[in-house]
Amino acid sequence: xxxxxxxxxxxxxxxxxxxxxxxxxxxxxxxxxxxxxxxxxxxxxxxxxxxxxxxxxxxxxxxxxxxxxxxxxxxxxxxxxxxxxxxxxxxxxxxxxxxxxxxxxxxxxxxxxxxxxxxxxxxxxxxxxxxxxxxxxxxxxxxxxxxxxxxxxxxxxxxxxxxxxxxxxxxxxxxxxxxxxxxxxxxxxxxxxxxxxxxxxxxxxxxxxxxxxxxxxxxxxxxxxxxxxxxxxxxxxxxxxxxxxxxxxxxxxxxxxxxxxxxxxxxxxxxxxxxxxxxxxxxxxxxxxxxxxxxxxxxxxxxxxxxxxxxxxxxxxxxxxxxxxxxxxxxxxxxxxx
Length: 338
Description:
Elements: E1 2-3, E2 9-11, E3 14-16, H1 23-42, E4 43-46, E5 50-56, E6 59-64, E7 67-70, E8 77-83, E9 89-93, E10 96-99, E11 105-107, H2 110-116, E12 117-119, E13 125-136, H3 139-144, H4 153-171, H5 175-181, H6 183-201, E14 205-216, H7 222-291, H8 293-308
Antiparallel strand pairs: 1-2, 2-3, 4-7, 5-6, 5-8, 9-13, 10-11, 12-13, 13-14
C-alpha cells in the first residue's frame, strides 16, 4: 500500500481516490462555531440569591440583578457572581463545623485552640470560641477594596478583624466576666467595633450577629478554676442564707415599730382633738355665760342634775327647814338604805 502525492491510496495496480475536503465546508463550520462562542460568551444567568459584578477589561462597570443578562463576548466583559444581601454567611473561630445537620459535629485542633486561647484583663487565660454572621451589602467594595483574590481576600481580612477585636475586648474584661457574667455585653461590643473597622476599610460587609459559643478555662487549670467556682458558690449560698434571716427579722421588727408609732400618733391626735373640743365647748359656754349669767347658771345646774339623778337608786326631796330627818331614814346593817 502506497500513498500518492495527491493523497490517493494505491494497492498494487489499483488506486483508491480519497475525496478532497471542501474549503467551503470548513468555512461554514468555522462560522457556526464562532457564532456559538459569541452567543455562549455573551449570555449569562444570575441566580435569585446572587448578584453579578461586571468588569470590562478588569475595570468595574455595573452590578446586575438576578435573571438572564447579556455582556460583551470573548472576555471583554467578565462576570463575578456574589451572594446577595439576603444571604447570611457564618464564620467560625476556635472550631470548625465538620458536618451540619440533626447532630452537628465540631472539629477542634491545635490550630483552632491557638486561635481560641486569649489573655483576659486580670491576666488569666480563657479559651473563647465564637461565631460571626455577616452579609455582603456592597459587592463592588467587597471585590475591589481589599487586597487578595476577589473571594478570599475579604474573608481573610474579616477573620483578622474579628480575632483582633475579640482579643482586645476580652483583654479589657476579667475571666469571670468573659466566662459567666458579661458574655452578651462582650458580644455586642465586638459587633459594634467590628462594624466600625469594616466601614473604615469599606469592605462592603455588614455584621449581623456575634455569638460567644464555649468559653472555658484551659484544660491545665480547669480543676483549680472549678474549685474556685465551688468556693464562690458556697460563699454566695451563705450570704443568701444570711440575707434570708435578715429579711425575716428586720422587716417584722420594722413593721411592729411602725405599728407602735402609728398607734402613738393616733392616740396623741385623739387626745389633742378631744382637748381642743372640750376647750372649744368651754369657750362657747363661757361666751354664753357672759351674755346671760343667770340663765346659763340655771341651764348648767339642770344639765348636771340630768346627768347625776338617773344614776341614783332612791331619791329624797326634803324641805330645807326640816329638822331631825335622820330618824326618818331606815338603813340596813351595812349602812345602806333599805
